[in-house]
Structures are given as C-alpha cells and as structure tokens.
Amino acid sequence: MAESVLQYSVRKTKDLFARRPSAEDWARNLLEGSKRLKSKHDWDKFYTFITNPEAYEEGEIPEDFSPAKISEGIPTDYPTHMKVVKTMNGNETLIHVVNTRRSRDEDDEKVPC
User: What's the gap between Cα 54 and its chain centre?
Assistant: First the structure.
C-alpha cells in the first residue's frame, strides 16, 4: 500500500530532524517536511505530530476533528464588563478574559490621588 501524503510528511520531517538537529534548522525542517500537505485534515494531524513526535500515533485524532470543537465547553456567559479575546495559534486556542471595569478601590500608583 502506498503511503499517504501525511505519512510521507511525518516520515520526511523525522528524517530531516535526524539529519539536521540544530535549532537553526528547526523551521526549515518543518517547512520542507510539510510542503506536500494540502488538506485541513492532514494539517490537523501534522500539528499533533509536531507537538509530540515521540508519542504521535496516526490514528489518535478522530476523523471528525475540528479546531472549532476545541472551543466547546468554554464558558461564554461572562458579565458585560468582561471582554473575551480568543486567539488561534495552530491547533491551540488561547483565551484571555479581561475585566474592562476599573475598581474604585484599586490601589494603582499610576492613578493620581
């Protein structure tokens, strides 16, 4: 059976890191190893591989995986003075909740008395 584009990319990336292990080659290894990837599904699996290459198993991501599903279960019913900022970084979602209301009894050196 012929190897898939994902299998080729994982194998190629592992080979590149074995031949060029220095920190200066890190980005080049990933770019060259992943250049055949086209589908979002393959990219999702490749991201999983690069986050932990030693523990990566091809079948560990379900077929219906979607980064949108990552945000399920995240509270969204914050008070109106709370601002939610979501940032996607590859397959990681960073959520920052900011209190936009200033407390009157807050001790801050920058506020003139």
Answer: 18
